[in-house]
Amino acid sequence: MATLYKAASVLPRAGVRMNGGAVVVEDGRIGWVGPAGRAPAVARTVDLGKATLMPGLVNAHSHLELTNLRDRVPYGDSFAEWLEGVARSRTPSGRLAAVEKGIRDALKRGTTAFGDIVPPGSFEDVVAAFAETGARARLYVEALGFHPDRADGIFEQVWELVEMQQLPPNVSTGISPHAPYTVSRPLLSRLCAMADGHGRPLAVHLAETLEEMAFLRMAMGPLRELLRRLDADDPEHEPYGSAADFLAEVQVHNTPLVLVHANYLRPRDVPRGAFVVYCPTAHAFFKHPQHPALEFIEEGVRVAIGSDSAVSGPSVDVLSELRHVARARPDFDAVTLFRMATEWGAQALGLEAGVLEAGRLADLCAFEGEGGPEVMTQSDPESRCVLTVVGGRVLHRLDAA
Ligand SMILES: [Zn+2]
């Protein structure tokens, strides 16, 4: 049954605002978008009143499986030590419930899709949580294995999860070689070939910390010592030289390539067409200098928004991230932030969403108040999300005050 959503303000895509607009949703897709007065007759109308209707927000980078570790691992000044702390604290106990709650909380705040990193051991729980909540997911199966001898075994395990599983319709897979300091060259090249050959988007953490930059340059420093402590090192490993040299080995051309964090990456080193994900609250948690997101955008790189994990930030929803940026970075304008959180996020995940346009997936949300994208981040009064729809299904509804 088709449903017509009417709202005082409709934002079909970044930079476009329609007063008194409407969106028709049918069979999980958007059927029509235009002025409410010219809307086709449909079986059911939902009038959202004084609200702003827009594409659902996309969290382009999360680690939902760590949601049960919220506030458990404080950060001192060594990323390697923090990472070791996370690895030591990981537990399946309470994981499924925490993932589900994280998704539901995000749905109530307008997030409709996640680009979630999932280690093989957590895959079943995370799929179950998405099946249960109905949110959309691109699940990047995570590969970790620095010793080349482990490449075959890890590749088989990742292949099995990426290609061989029966998944609910709201869930699709991608591939994530974790980072330059945790994946061997042979494993990296096989994962890139799988991503490219099968059209599975690929996400890799890159240029996140100065410790990683030292590792890229000289294969030395705290991250190399961590590998040795974990008995995971490859004594034969030769340094890449730089992040750009590492990227020269990431050969992905037929599917989205997502560079997560890129805190210390130069815009000219981003391969053509690749995406960057900026995780604002995690970036602040690790006390990095100002993120170069606007420099990337200036150079034509599309930058999406991610939450990273609950271990390094307060929540896993995009709205919290946007509000953080609006407070901390007055140099971002509301339209750019909105584009990052919708259109570019969806493109990074390879999803036909992020824009309200006939034929796209019906993933949308609405916020109280009438206006442009700034309705999400205004703090006086803080506006509320009144509607979240994923694939045509209403997953959250709040009556306007
Ligand atoms: Zn991450």
Q: What is the CA-atom radius of gyration, in angstroms?
A: 21 Å
What spatial form do the alpha-carbon principal axes imply? globular
CATH C-level label of the largest domain: Alpha Beta
- Ligand names: zinc ion
Number of helices: 14
Q: Structurally, how many domains make up the residues?
A: 2
Helix content: 25-40%
CATH fold field value of the largest domain: TIM Barrel
Largest sheet: 8 strands, mixed
Structural class: alpha/beta
Distance between the termini: 28 Å
Give, in order, the helices and strands.
EEEEEEHHEHEHEHEHHHEEHHEHHHEHEE
Number of separate strands: 16
CATH superfamily of the largest domain: Metal-dependent hydrolases
Integer average pLDDT: 95
CATH architecture of the largest domain: Alpha-Beta Barrel
Topology:
Elements (H helix, E strand, L loop, with lengths): L2 E8 L7 E9 L2 E7 L8 E4 L3 E5 L1 E6 L16 H11 L5 H13 L3 E8 L4 H11 L2 E8 L7 H13 L7 E7 L7 H14 L3 E5 L3 H9 L3 H8 L13 H6 L8 E5 L13 E4 L1 H6 L7 H6 L3 E4 L12 H11 L5 H8 L1 H6 L15 E5 L5 H4 L7 E6 L2 E5 L4
